[in-house]
Amino acid sequence: MPGDEEQVFRDFLAQKGRRWTPERQAVLREVFAHHDHFDAEELHRRLRERGLAVSRASVYRTLGLLVESGLVAEVFVEDGHMHYEHVYGHEHHCHLRCLGCRRIIEFRDEALPQVEARLAAAHQFQVTGHKLEVYGWCAACRGKQG
Amino acid sequence: MPGDEEQVFRDFLAQKGRRWTPERQAVLREVFAHHDHFDAEELHRRLRERGLAVSRASVYRTLGLLVESGLVAEVFVEDGHMHYEHVYGHEHHCHLRCLGCRRIIEFRDEALPQVEARLAAAHQFQVTGHKLEVYGWCAACRGKQG
DNA sequence: GCCGTTATTGAGATTCTATATCATCTATTT
DNA sequence: AAATAGATGATATAGAATCTCAATAACGGC
User: Fold this and answer.
1) Of B69, B125, B141, B146, which sees the most CB atoms within 10 A?
2) Which domains does chain A have, with CATH numbers?
């Protein structure tokens, strides 16, 4: 499946009557070229640095479509704006964040599918996903708090 | 403890060398007068409607202090901006959100303290909190998706 | 392959959230 | 009461994200 993201996105677009364009391809490839968290402006900057002149408007528009398609997820707000990560081809994971150095550790916990199942049953919900952020202080930053 | 929030906030301010002012009192009282989620502009509007002329700047500043003190929590981003709730005097809870009607159901799950404990042990973290959002489609909105 | 329809693009303007500035004011200490 | 230092509010500013609209290009039909 990894590497398939382009076909998945093209299918998603086709199914919605939207078009596959060089700009969307450039954004998609840039998003899947790195494995770290990013924001819209950074994505725009990296594309320009590569010589791919995709406008800011198209970057934001494509990012919205990528989130809608499920290939990319909104991860957290930091410095007043959203940060993203690509999720297609990766096992679902959550984030442990240090309040001191802002380091982010990804983790998986087997309890979460069970939490989802309990909620679905208790509230007649069709649960499609979750976002868990755990925060605290890493060993190195302990003591800096307060 | 409920009703104590004013004293807790005053202590928090004193300990930081900050001052207790009529504006901060007005904001605190408004925040604890309702049990629903709110955003900064709504809080500002409600204060003005009550005839309490607290400036937008002071509303934002006080909200920041309330979050810092732990009396109020950032809950989620919707419509491009942060939403809050007061948490002092309430058991910690998480949010189940319907992607259709945007209804929010609060829930508690006993698995989360265990998740926190596992993370603390595995990564030498001093965990101070977590934020879990589960999303999906409620019974009434099922079928509206896609 | 060409044509027509219609989504897409990009530059710039706009909207909106949130913070910064700074002169004035006020809580608190001595 | 005077001095110190934090707080307030009107306004300006920064920044994120969206909207506008004319020009362009993707895609389906022929």
Assistant:
1) B125
2) 5-86 (1.10.10.10), 94-136 (3.30.1490.190)
